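Office hours follow-up: a student asked to see two folded examples consecutively, so here they are.
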Amino acid sequence: ESLTKYVHMSIFGWIIIFVFYAICAAALGLILYVLRRTRLRWLIVIPLALIALALPWIDEAQISWHFAQACKDAGVHITRQVTVDGYLDEVVGSSRDKPGIIADPGAAKQLDDGGFKFYERKINRSSATGKISHIEKVDGEWKATIIDKPKARYHYRLAGPQREQPIGFRLQKREKVVVDAMTGEVVARQVGYNRYPGWVESLWLG
């Protein structure tokens, strides 16, 4: 496949490239003038000109190409479907660190709309306490209790220690998984990728 189909440049990027080419042309013209009495001057100038022409595109093309290849794996991949009453969400932590009734109608409606009988989240996800906020509907009301261990068998978590894992030059992977805590089996994966611009676009984006 042609690399040009993967190259995307903004109008600001084109302006930077035009200025870069103008500076390179002036520099190459000066070199030709200095070497005007040298027979091999073109053997020096032509390779430099080719390098100057390619330089704004090299990193953009390879970033875009690798990003396009990686994105073929993007999306939701389901190994096995399961029916559950609730799950542990390890991706988003809970600030609810005390037991009690959830009186906020909006929060209660959001829980109802989720369709599960209970929800669990780690309290202050970055904390080492390991406490779990367990929210379940009891007698028609959503009630939070604090437990030491999750009751949910299936855990929704990040696949790695960070939300975004570097996988190459200017590329990152985002992956979340649903894990069967009893067997360790990954029953579903949600995969996405980030790419960042090459040096030309970074000059104005920065």
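And the second, which I mentioned at the end of office hours:
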Amino acid sequence: MKKTKMIFTAAFALLLASCSDTADVRDIKGGYHYKTSGQVEISDNGKSTIEQLGQETGMLEVVSLHDDDNVLITFSQTGGEVYNTKATADGNTLHFDPFHRTLTIRTTTDNTIGIDDHLGILDSIGSYPTVQTEVFDLTVSGRAEIYDNTLIFYYQYDGRSQSTGKTLRGSDIQMLAKKN
């Protein structure tokens, strides 16, 4: 009877130890509000433009997966989409798996006004900008740095337009997430 009780207690202690979160996970799990900004390069037929991203805000949640230092990060963009990724906490860094999302970008195209002299020569007399929106399918990769009640994500975007052959690249995109 004593031996059975001791085995049961040891098994229960082992079970509790395996379900507990590490200190890294305990420090970062919870709800955050975030803001993202940066710029991207959009390329089309060898021609590139730099576009400023619209400021994106929302809520994110870091949830323990009760598996070493592994967490789930869920994002809920204000007035927009939701997406998620798994990550591993490693000291002051959060390494997350690349994830997919869509992004609507406002692009500006300069249009030239010209006069055709009927000899095939076009004289330019001015230009005007056209603003349009375009939806891109993205792969998002990067990392996050962990501070007291703050996560700073450093993103790289790599994507393609849903409607044209344009490509999108961004390597200096930041998200600041403050714990609620």
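Two things to take away from it. The two ends are 50 Å apart (CA to CA). Helices lie at 2-19, 23-28.
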